[in-house]
Structures are given as C-alpha cells and as structure tokens.
Amino acid sequence: MEKKTIFSGIQPSGEPTIGNYIGAIRNWVELQENENYENIYCIVDMHAITVPQVPKDLRRHTLELLSVLMASGLDPEKTTLFIQSHVPAHAELTWVLNTLTYMGQLNRMTQYKDKSKRFEDSSINSGLFTYPVLMAADILLYQADYVPVGEDQRQHLELTRDVAERFNNRYSPTFKLPEALIKEEGARIMSLQDPEAKMSKSDANKDSYLLLLDDPDAIRRKIKRAVTDSVGVVAYNDEQKGIKNLLNIYASFTNEDIGNIVDRYEGKGYGVFKEDLAEVVVEALRPIQERYNDLINNKDYLEKVYKKGAEKAEYMANKTLRKVYKKVGFIPR
Ligand code: AQP
C-alpha cells in the first residue's frame, strides 16, 4: 500500500506554547509512529516574518523550535524535519499560486483579519495578506494527503484546496487535494487571560500562555492567575469558559475523561483544582524540557538535522515545482 503523505508547519515566531503542543506537535509525534504515513514537518520562518521579528531572536527561536520538536518526540530518522527558507521552491510556487488566488478570498481569512488589527492600515504588509498562499504552496509542493493542524487553520486548508483545484482545472491535474486532520480534543487551547481568544505565542501578555519551556514556578504562577469566574464550581460548560479551558488542558495532559475530573473536584473550589493542574502540567513538560536542554546545546547535531531535512525536502519539492513551471508555460533552463 502506498504511504499517505502528511505535511504540517509551525512558526518560529516566539517560544512554542502548550497550545502548539496539544493542537499540533504531539499529534505529529503520534502520526510519525504510524507506518502508513510519510511525515514532513517544517519550521516556517518565512511565515514568521509576516509580523516584525528581531533577526537574532528569529534565529534563536528557529533552533529552539527544532530542539522542541525533537524533544517532543519527532525523530529526524523517521520524519523529514526542515526549515522553510532552506527550500526556495516554497517562495517560487507561492508566486505562481498568487496569480490564481483572488483578493476577495484572502480578504475573508479570519486570521488575517485578527492579525491585521494589530497594525495601522498603512503598515499592514502584503505578506500578512498572502500568508495563506505561502501555506498552500508549503502543502501542495509535497502532494500532502493530510495536514494535521489546530482548528484555527481550517479556513486556510480550504483555501489551499480551492487554489489547487483551480490550478488543476486550468492546466491539468497536478496537485493532490489535501485534507485537514483536526483532532477534536485540544484543537483549540484558549488564552489564560481571555478565554475567548486562542492561546498564542505572540500574545503581548505573558500571563496569557504557558510555554513548553516555562519553568515550574512560571507554570504555577500563570495558572494561579488564570481568569475564571465567580460561579466557584468546577464545571464544563460555555458559561464558564476559563474553567472549561483549564479542564481541557488538564484532560489533554492526563488523557482522562473530563467528566471524571469534574467529579473529583466537586465541592473543592478553584484553588485546589488550579494547584493540581499546575502539577499535572509541570510533570508532563518535565521530560520534554530535559531532552530539550541536551539538544539545544548540541548545535552541530542540530545543523546536521536541518541540512539533511532540507536536502530530502528539496528533492520532493522541486519535482512538483518543475511540473508546475512547465504547465504554466515557463521555458526550462
Ligand atoms: N491555542 C492553540 N490551540 C490549539 N492549537 C494551536 N495551534 C496554535 N495555537 C493553538 C496550532 O499550532 C500549529 C502551529 O501554529 P503556528 O505556530 O504555525 O501558528 P499559529 O496558529 O498562528 O500559532 P500561534 O501560537 O498563535 O502563533 P502566533 O502567535 O505567531 O500567531 C498550528 O497547527 C495551529 O493550529
């Protein structure tokens, strides 16, 4: 049986949060262990510069993220792990796809609407606007069957399929139409300070997120400060969005049924629940952090991993790009 191809990416736009871990990274690790899949995961630094980045921080975050991915269980022997800017085909295919994407479609993207709110109209860069086209190129270059992402990325996946279909119809069948792979549980971890907004590594408020590399004290402090409500009962419903989010985090790390957790905290109040949750998170992150500390200090090994990953990725990506260039009418060199 031919293996199905899985592709996904993550931005080095800050330090990864438990939202990135629960919604994406740990699912990637699970998929890696399934022998029916060929896995390709990418650190999308070209996406990250759609919002301003300090160059030395971007470099640091990129290597940190590579280490976090491996510390979480991604194995470069089993999975292609690479950095987006190392494979020029991503930018090259984006240009072609830009010519097949309508402004109206991009205008409807909710991530663009959310992120562009942070800037004055006159300083929204067009990279932020065409971000979903670069994402489409990332996926289509590898002829991916499935794209494991969090719920927030569903709309971008639909656009990817749409653009791929338009290309296939205008020229001839070229791209596989990828499907989003979204896990119900943990698909959307919310901010600890605003349970209406998703937890994001680039949030200005450091109390809003738990980082994978946060030390135990930071984890305890942030969970203690997490916004709840005045009801005072640990329950899972949409009137108590803060507690609901904390329960989701608890269940994600313990794989326990939410009903059981709720039962256990009956009559106990938020203080005890938050203290226990903090310990659950500390213990879940401990082994990842230990492995991370070894990896981040081994720069030679990291370099070997990303160079080998880029070589493998480039070979696959160029195959698709050559076909695309030929079909649109470019003369081969
Ligand atoms: N809060 C979240 N809950 C569940 N999944 C999440 N993801 C992100 N936040 C949550 C998933 O993580 C993967 C990688 O995301 P990304 O880094 O490429 O971009 P993002 O979705 O924009 O993540 P952030 O943390 O919010 O980054 P910034 O702040 O830079 O925009 C994706 O699969 C995403 O669904």
Radius of gyration: 21 Å
Tell me the strand percentage band. 5-15%
Q: Say which molecules are bound, naming each kind only once.
A: adenosine-5'-tetraphosphate
Count of discrete structural domains: 2
Low-confidence stretches: none
Strand order of the largest sheet: 1-2-3
The CATH superfamily name of the largest domain is HUPs
The appropriate CATH architecture of the largest domain is 3-Layer(aba) Sandwich
Question: What does it look like?
Answer:
This protein has 333 residues and is mainly alpha-helical. The chain has 2 domains: 4-186 and 299-328, 3-Layer(aba) Sandwich (Rossmann fold); 206-294, Tyrosyl-Transfer RNA Synthetase (Orthogonal Bundle), CATH 1.10.240. It has 13 helices and 5 strands. It has helices spanning 18-32, 45-48, 55-71, 89-98, 103-107, 110-116, 126-141, 154-170, 216-225, 241-254, 258-264, 269-296, 299-328; strands at residues 4-10, 37-43, 80-83, 146-148, 179-181. The strands form 2 sheets. Strands 1-2-3 form a 3-stranded parallel sheet. It has a two-stranded parallel ribbon with strand order 4-5. Helix 8 (154-170) links the parallel strand 4 (146-148) and strand 5. Helix 4 runs parallel beside helix 13 and helix 7 (126-141) packs across helix 8 (154-170). The radius of gyration is 21 Å and the shape is globular. Adenosine-5'-tetraphosphate is lined by residues 9-11, 13-14, 17, 19-20, 22-24, 149-150, 152-153, 187-189, 198-202. Residues 9-11, 13-14, 17, 19-20, 22-24, 149-150, 152-153, 187-189, 198-202 line the site of adenosine-5'-tetraphosphate.
